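Morning. Coffee machine broken again, so started the prediction first thing and wrote up yesterday's gels while waiting. Chain of 501 residues, entered below exactly as on the submission form.
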Amino acid sequence: MRREPWPNTNCEIHIDGIRQATAPDGLHFNEINGNLAITISGPRPISTLTLVWKADHLNVTLVLGDAWERGYGDLQWAPIDPARTMPWYVVLRTPTGFTAFGVKTRPNALVSWNITQTEVQVTFDLRSGRRPLALGERELAIGELVNLESKPEESAFEFVGRLCSALCENPRILSSPVYGANDWYYAYGNNSRDGILADTHRTATWAGTHPNRPYSVIDAGWQIHGGCEGGPWKGNERFGNMGHLADQIREAGCRPGIWIRPLLTREDVSTHWLMRDQTLDPSQPEALQRAVECIAQCAAWGFDLIKHDFTTWDCTRLWGFEMDAIRHAEGGDFADDTRTSAEIYLALYDAIRAAAGESVLIGCNTWGHLTAGTHEIQRTGDDTSGKEWARTLKMGVNTLAFRAVQHNRFFAADADCVGLTDQIPWQLNSQWLHAVAASGTPLFVSANAKALTPEIESALANAFTLAAEPMPLAEPLDWMDTLTPAKWKQGSEVQSYNWTP
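Came back before lunch.
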């Protein structure tokens, strides 16, 4: 492949799908240490900016991209497909090595890549929701592009990890590994104070006397309206005082954690705060303040970890696999069209970070490239399962393999829970448990007490021993050949799993 440099004289410029004969006023390029920083200005409304570089990709054998928010079992190395939109970064394999293109984390646009046999295309979606951006008199830095080449003998996994480090300069890295329990994949919202405390005592027992204590996370179902519904954020009749429960979890030997959905409320609020139904519009200052009050409340109750959920779905009404460079904002409009969607999300995540104080944040159904730098943990894949092994295999194993490269480079990369129930054979779940525990990434288990046996509890104690200590990041050795890698390098050892029921 012939590598093209970044100079703007070598790229085509398309604004709202129309090729420009010359670079328009208000579009500026600045090369910084080999990267390309791009700013825009001017009052003309704009929806998309696409830059196209000519490049010879005839020798490219496989291409890897990222996902808008979570992975949905579809992350993969695949041949060039011009229609395939790859959010945030893209990696190209050639017979002699790898080339990568990406945008640094926290851009002020939603950025995606398309690769053809002759072109590299990057698109900056600058809309506010579905509407063109009304930038006014502002100058806006929309993103800084990075281009890397692999080193001799550098594996694909090592190279993509180095790319992620180059894309995120200031990740929030925890001093100790993250592990523990989450009740969702056996309770599915049918949870209670007594059940959580029983889980907590078991979790503390499996962790033994290790000074890095596990988390006990209360997932959805604790609030007045239950399930995955929104506020008001008070404990329902099964839970009562949530601050008292956080204290009880800590006294039992675990760190308390809690789930919340900040943009959905069942409270009576001003209609101009809402995007639709009962979804708060984070572009509205009053609505944003209301949205993050629940985060501050969880921190004040004493929860050491706050898992917030649904911020992309609530605003777009699309899951990550339904999004592409054109459609991903079809779900609704923000009241403020003077800022891009990305700016509005960044402001939301910054406000959540401020409201959380010293509590650890985990984002679920969030734009990972926008939470990097403000969140310590990210749920990097769609839900695993305590009911269907096929779902855990598709979502969990795929996510662990393809987004572990982001671990401790963007945030701690959580591939989701091990759902221990009698509906999934232990010979399969035992492998998934070991794979996550030995991966160096966060381990959360959802263990139904009715499914526990002495063998399973012994395996959980062993898994917690692994997960409590820093470990080398496990490398999927067959990730170029399958969506669900089975051969993993874990430290100095190679482990093979049999994912077939």
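Residues 1-5 have pLDDT under 50 and may be disordered. Going to sketch it on the whiteboard this afternoon.
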